[in-house]
Amino acid sequence: MEAAKNLFSYRKYWAHRFGTAPFLPTTREEMEALGWDACDVIVVTGDAYVDHPSFGMAIIGRMLEAQGFRVGIIAQPDWRTPADFSRLGAPRLFFGITAGNMDSMVNRYTADRRIRSDDAYTPEAAPGKRPDRSVIVYAQRVREAFPESPIVIGGIEASLRRVAHYDYWSEKIRRSILLDSKADLLVYGNGERQIVEIAHRLAAGEPIGNLTRLRGTAVIGSPPAEFTEIDSSSVDTPGPLNPPIDPYEMSPSEASPQAQPDPENANETRVPLEMLKAGRRPPRSATCLRLPSFEQVRDDPVLYAHASRVLHLEANPGNARALVQRHGDVDVWINPPPIPLATEEMDGIYELPYQRLPHPSYGGAKIPAYEMIRFSIPIQRGCFGGCTFCSITEHEGRIIQNRSEDSVIREIETIRDTVPGFTGIISDLGGPTANMYRIACKSREIEAACRKPSCVYPGICPNLDTDHSPLVRLYRRARALPGIKKILIASGVRYDLAIESPEYVKELATHHVGGYLKIAPEHTEQGPLSKMMKPGVGTYYRFKQLFDRYSREAGKEQYLIPYFIAAHPGTRDEDMVALALWLKKHGFRADQVQAFLPSPMATATAMYHSGKNPLRKVSRNSEEVPIPKGLRIRRLHKAFLRYHDPDNWPMLRAALQRMGRSDLIGSGPDQLIPAWQPKGTGQRPEGARAARFTTQHLGLPRIDQSKPGTRRARPPRKRIPTR
Q1: What is the largest CA-CA distance in the chain?
Q2: pLDDT digits (tens, 9 = 90+) for 583-613
Q3: CA 533 to CA 547: how far, in whole Å?
Q4: Contact present, 393 and 401 (Cβ < 8 Å)
Q5: How many CB atoms lie within 10 A of CB 707?
Q6: pLDDT per residue over 543-593, tens digit each?
Q7: What pTM, to 2 d.p., does this model score?
Q8: What is the number of other CB atoms lying within 10 angstroms of the CB of residue 266?
Q9: How buried is residue 200: exposed, middle or buried, by Cβ count under 10 Å (0-12/13-18/19+)?
Q10: Is residue 708 part of a domain?
Q11: 115 and 62 share a domain?
C-alpha cells in the first residue's frame, strides 16, 4: 500500500496566527471578535453545531483549523432561500457541504417511509430543520448565493451516493449525487486526508478543476490518457455468457458479444493487445474499471447488481482500482479509497481542542444526540465484518484504524475534568464495533492484496489476528483512573470474534456491562443469515454460554439482548415463523422492531432491487434471492417479531393459515398465537407501530440510547429495548 503524507506534517497556512477559536464562528459577529475579515472554508451542515469529536462538522472544522485555516460553520440553515447561506460571506477557498452525521432521508423517514416525529441532531429534537436530500438542496442554495465559490460535498449522504444508486424512497435509480448537486468535488469516506490536501492545494493557488487524482474523491471527468481502461463486465460478466475470462488474457476480438463495450461509447477500451502479447499487465495504479452506465443500471437490475459487486470488490485501498461510470454525456470518475489513518494521526484528530459542548447560541436546549454520546469515546474506526445491510465498509473501510491507549486515557481524563454533568461513568469505549480494537491481518502483504468482503464470514479468516489483549489492557487501565466509577461498553459486540478470546468475554461480563448487553444475531435461519453474511445461531449460543458463566462468577444477574431484522433479502415467511418461535421459546418480547432499510450502496440493497446475489458472480441465470418487498409483507415480517402483540394476531393467524401452519394457532406452549382475540384489540391498522432502524447499521456515528447509571438487571421474561 502506498504511503500517505502525515496529516500534521503540512506547513501551516498563514492564518494560523489568529490562534484557536473557542467555538468555530457561526455569525459575522463571532468572526469579527476573532479578528477575521473572511473565512477560508465554510462548512454547511444539516446538524446542530456541537463541538465534539463525534460530530463530523467539528472534526473537519478543527482539523482544518489545526492546518491554519479559518473555518466557519453554517448549521441547519434555512434552505428555502439563499439568504441564510450568505451569513458569513464568501469563503476564500471553498464551501464544504454535508447533510450531517445521518443521511437526511434516513433521518426523516422510517423503514416504512413514515415521517419521524423527531430529529436527534436538532435542539429539543425538533423535526423539519433540514430538507430531504440535504446535500443537493444546500449545494443549490450555495451556488445561488455565490456562483463562483468552489463546492466540495462529503459526509455519509454524499459518500454513499457517489455512483448511480438505488433510492428506496423514490424506488428509482438516481444519478451520482455529484451531478445532481452540481458540486465541483465529492469526498467519500472519512474525509480528513482529502479535505486537508484540498485546502492546502487550493490555498497554494491551484484551481479546483486540477484536483482530479486525489484518493477518496470523485469528480466529473473521463479517464486520463495514461490509464488503461477495462470494461467491468470482462471482470465479472453479467449475462448468459461464456465462463468469465481474465481481462488480461483477452483481446477485443475474443470478447463475447454481450460483454463488448458499447460501440457508441468511444471511451470504453480494453487492455492493449500489444501489451498482452508482450506478457505485461498494466499496473493497477494506472488501471480503471468502467462500470455499466447510469442508463444501463437504471434500466437493467442485473447490471445494477453487477456494478454493486464490482464496486465492493474495489474497496481495499491496497489494491483498489479507479472506477468510471458514464452518466449521459459525462463520466463520473471515482478515485480509489483513501489510505487508512495511522495511530498518531487518529490521536491527533481526537485530541484537537474541542469544547465538547453544543454552540452557546442554543442556550439550554437539549440536543439528544449530544446527550447520548457526550461521555462516550471512540477508540477505532472501520469494520471488517462485511454485513451486507451495513454501510460502514463503504464509508469507513474494513481496515481498522486505532487510537493509542495513551490518547484514549487522556480523553477520559479530559471528560472527567472538564465536561459538565460528568458523574464518573463513561458510557462507551468503542466504535462501529466494540471489539475490533487493534485486530488486523497478520500480514500487511496479504491485507493489501485481499479482496474478500469479510474477514469473519463464513468463518474467521486464518490470517486474522484475533488477539483481544490490547483491548483488555485498555479496559483495565481506563477503569483504574481516579474519579472513574465505571466504564460501560455500549457499542455492538461482534460475538463471533469475542468467543475467540474468553478472557475478553470475562472482562466484559465482570466489569463493563450494566445489566444487559446488546448483540446482533439479526436472525436465526440460514436463508437470511447467508445474505447478511452473519454467523449462525450456534455462535450466539457459544457466546451466551461464556457470558452467562462469567456473569455468574462475578455474582451478577445480566442478560443478553439480541436484535433482529425483519424483511431482509433472503427472508421467507417460513424463516420469520421460525424466528418468532425461537423468540417465544427464549422468552423475548420486542417492544419495537426494525425492518430492513435499503440504504444507498449497501450490498443488501442491490439484492433488494435486483433479486440477485452480488456476493457471487452475477449473471442472468445466477442465484435468485427471495425479497420481502412491499408494505404488506414487510409489515407481516415485523408482526412475527412482535408475535405477543394482540394487535398483530389477526394478521398472523391469516398468514399461518395460508402457510398451512394452523397447528401454531392455539394456547399451547409450542404454539405461537392464541385462537381467541382480546376485546378491543386487533383494530389498529397494520404496521401502526413504526420500525426503528438506527445509525449503527448505516455506517454512521453510533447513538448510545442508554443513560449512564440507570442500567439494571432484566427480569427473566425479557423485553428487547429499541435500538
Answers
A1: 82
A2: 999 999 887 788 999 999 999 999 999 999 9
A3: 23
A4: no
A5: 11
A6: 999 999 999 999 999 999 999 999 999 999 999 999 999 999 999 988 778
A7: 0.88
A8: 9
A9: buried
A10: no
A11: yes
